[in-house]
Amino acid sequence: MHKFLFFALPLLSFFSLTAQNEVSGKIVNAENGEPLPYATISYGNDRNVMTNIDGSFEITYKEDQIQLKITYVGFFSKNVEISDAITYVVVKMQPSVENLNPVFISSEENTANSIIKMAIAAREQNDPEQALEAFQHNTYTKFIIDNQSDAVNLETDTTNVEVETIINTARAYLSEKISKTAFQKKIGRTETILGLKTAGFEEPVYEMLSLEANPYSLYKKDYKLFQTDYAGPLADNALKNYNFKILDTTTTDHPAYVIYFEPKREKTVAGLEGILYLDVSSYAIQRAKAQLLGAIKLEVNHHYKYYDEAGIWFPERQTTTIRPSTGEKDIAVFGGVISVGTLQRSDNIVNRVLGSGEVRPDAVLSSSSTNYDVVFEAPKDLQRNPASIEVPPEAGEQPESFWKTNRQEPFTYRDKNAAQYVDSIVKANNVERRIEVKQALSNGNYPLGFWNFNIGAFYSSNGHEGWRLGLGGRTNDKLSDHFNLHGYGAYGLRDKKFKYNIGTQIYLDKSSGTNLNIDYTDDIREFGAFQYRKKVDLFSLFRPRFGNIASYFNHRTLSTGLEHRFNAYTTSELLVSNSRISMNESFEYSYLHNGQLYSEYDITEITFSVLWRPFSRFLHTPEENVLLERGFPRLTAQVSQAVEGIAGGDFTFTRAGIMVEHEISQLDQSRTEFIFEANYAFGDLPLTHVFHTSPNNVNEPKILNRFAVAGRTAFETMYFNEFFSDRQAMFHIRHQLRPFYITRSFKPELVMFSRFAIGDFEDMDNHPFAEFKTLKHGYSEAGVELNNILLGFGLSAAYRFGAYHLPDFRENFSFKFTFALPL
Q1: How far apart are CA 163 and CA 465, in angstroms?
Q2: 664-721 pLDDT per residue, tens
Q3: Share of residues in the chain with pLDDT > 70 (%)
């Protein structure tokens, strides 16, 4: 007992000496009870805070009592006495005639709007990426997912290890990053990770680097935060998206206007609420604070530093916090929508880390970044680097001395304890396994031991095979990090035939994506399908158009290919293949060549395919190239040459194709997509190797008999095998309106689309047993979709018009359902 008192008394003394009082409250309009956001509360020795967007505030003080002075433009100031017995107070402010003596602008319009217009006009001289030819700096970033029940002020610390151990915080994620940013106008901005530490994980969670937790600039059109775009408060259309009000002027060496902004079209355009400190002389941002308040509370603080040598305010420090709140309003963040307690999207990085679709009710996310060693010139060796974020091999192996030198804020005892705690949590909750599974699922796989099962291989259906049941996948790095083995087996219940593939991929150089592929396939393939080897498609559990196809040919193909990534945005493959083609009962066909009919033949083909995505963002690690953000336009091109006489090849022909995809997304969540594709072929072309335009209409007379699933880029009113071409061009345009917000869970999307195709066929006489038409007069269709009506299902209607319009209305009309359930 004496020993306990010996240790307890000093501890109690410690707490009594450092005891603090706390008071919280709310500032409201006395006339209507509306909260007053960003009211200034002054107290003590020149200390002050600002209320949050809901008028709330919290103050910590050591005195027995303090006097609060509350000021707000357009209201009479008010003094309030606070004693240590008061823990909560509501202050009602009386409106007054607005009068701002230090500011005078000769304009009849809103004073704040005039200032914002000047700030927008001055962007080119204030935005570092527009005003400066070059700059470089280092950045220290600390990223934490904490536990609110144990959360304390992260900027405070204690030297008492025992007390800190008793507190024993319960964080779930902690990482540190040192990076070097280099910018040059003609090249752009690149980031190289110099050091990276992730507590509890054997391998760094590279995807966390793409979260955009600390936006670089407030001057841009879109303010990107946690994978969600918000309207920029200084964008060209800022006055359309925001209401502005001047709150105050500062009296520092560099005076600033304090401008309050709030969303004007909240249901249409995602916006933030906050304050801007705009320099009185240059209208540059000195400081900024932005908030969202609803199911969560999100707060971002920007601090800029003035550099005389460059004559510019440059970003110095940014902090971002997200914590639960009691509001009912949904908040857009992480590329989805957060309702109370739940993140309504499965494909997101935080969900991968936390391991479920729910955000813990006590979770607190905090990220801070500090720029230092700022130099206003570019490195001498700076070159265009298409990878937005570069992670060299040594980044994860930096010694402790490196971190001590480069940390821009203390790594506290709390942080050290947190690292140990996270390590135990990661192991106890098998977090790395959860990440592995979710990442695999997003690519259509399920990992089990050293094998990744291909989910799409389990079952599918089409008009020839009926139900197709199978099993397939590939080995992962648990078997070998030098190669993988892959394959599948499938059986059609209607055609009663077995199909299979077996192959290997040898990793020659992971950093450049150089791989050697060897495959053998015995399967079926659709007539006229031109498959781009490097085309990128998002995985979906259901591929709608393939369920309607009924005409196939058999092929047994041996292929060898070499993949290589020239840079982050350019990938390619060179493939050599030999195929034995034969017909089956689904489509009786023979090709007439030099007076001889071929129903079986060999094709030896050399194919080169390339994918170019210059506007996408990538993260380049020693092991892989990770796509962070899809950018548009993007281009896929492919050319192949069949050669007669080599490896038994029967024909010589050339095929080429190019596809350009572009997408324009708006802040109101509307989206317009454009796809242009052109194909050209010449030589000895059997019908198996010409082109179709992705028809998706079953050959049945009644509309309801053709009721099926609509494709995304298919011609819904074009019948299967109705048209073939050896040269063609297609154009698709889809415009999705912003979702209709009916209820929190019912948000249907209306899509309008139009498609056009034109083509021709030179040697139709060489296909005497196939009946089809050409597209030389141009084919047109248009329609609408109403998607996401229920559980991912929707409805589609399309109509065929123009040169190939058919006499019966029912023949031109398609009515189908849509389905979208991406992983």
Answers
A1: 69
A2: 988 778 899 999 999 999 999 999 999 999 999 988 888 877 888 888 889 999 999 9
A3: 82
Which residues does residue 304 pair with via DSSP β-bridges, in sequence order? Answer: 315
Residue with tokens 């209320």: 51
In degrees, to the nearest 5, what angle opens at C-alpha 372 toward C-alphas 367 and 377?
130
Residue 362: which of 145, 57, 580 has the closest Cα? 145
Choose the most confident range, by mean pLDDT, from 129-143, 291-305, 367-381.
129-143
Q: Which of 30-34, 258-262, 646-650 comes out lowest in average pLDDT?
A: 30-34
Got the DSSP string for 63-119? SSEEEEEEE-TTB--EEEEEETT--EEEEEEPB-----TT-----SS-HHHHHHHHH
What does the pLDDT look like over 303-321, one tens digit per residue? Answer: 999 999 999 999 999 998 8
SS3 456: helix
- Which run of H or E residues covers position 156? none
What pTM did the predictor assign?
0.80
Domain ranges of the chain: 18-93, 111-436, 530-552+564-819
Q: How far apart are CA 111 and CA 105, in angstroms?
A: 7
CATH number assigned to the domain covering 530-552+564-819: 2.40.160
**Domain 18-93: CATH superfamily, name plus number:** Immunoglobulins (2.60.40.10)
Whole-number Å distance between alpha carbons of 306 and 314: 6
Q: Which tens digits make up the pLDDT trace of 449-466?
A: 999 999 888 988 888 999
pLDDT of residue 357: 38
Structure tokens at 308: 């005389």
Q: What is the DSSP string of 325-366?
A: -S--S-EEETTEEEETTEES-SS-HHHHHH-SSB--TTEEEE
Give the model confidence (pLDDT) of 534-556 as tens digits: 987 766 666 778 878 888 999 99
Amino acid at residue number 18? T
Rounded to whole angstroms, the Cα distance separating 301 from 701 reads 63
pLDDT (mean) for 567-575: 93
Place of tokens 């359309």: 240
Residue 389 half-sphere exposure toward CB, CA atoms < 13 A: 26
What whole-number distance in Å separates Cα of residue 69 and Cα of residue 44?
10
Judged against a pLDDT cut of 70, whether residue 387 lies above it is answered with no
Q: What is the pLDDT of residue 252?
A: 83
Tell me, what DSSP letter sits at residue 162? H
CA dist 486 → 270, 481, 561, 639 (Å): 44, 14, 15, 26
Integer CA distances (angstroms), 652 to 530, 531, 607, in order = 17, 19, 13
714: burial class by Cβ within 10 Å (0-12, 13-18, 19+)? buried
Cα dist. 174→138, 449, 773 in Å? Answer: 20, 28, 63
SS3 state at 433: helix
Q: Is 280 left (phi over 0), alpha (psi -120 to 50) or beta?
A: alpha
Burial 271-303 (b: 16+ CB within 10 A, else e): bbbbbbbbbeebbbbbbbbbbbbbbbbbbbbbb
User: Alpha helix locations (H) across 579-719?
Assistant: none
Q: What is the pLDDT of residues 624-644, one digit of tens each?
A: 888 877 889 999 999 999 999
Beta bridge partners of 536: none
What six digits make up the tokens of 123?
Answer: 């962007």
With contact defined as beta carbons under 8 Å apart, do 421 and 170 qualify? yes
* Radius of gyration from C-alpha coordinates of the chain: 32
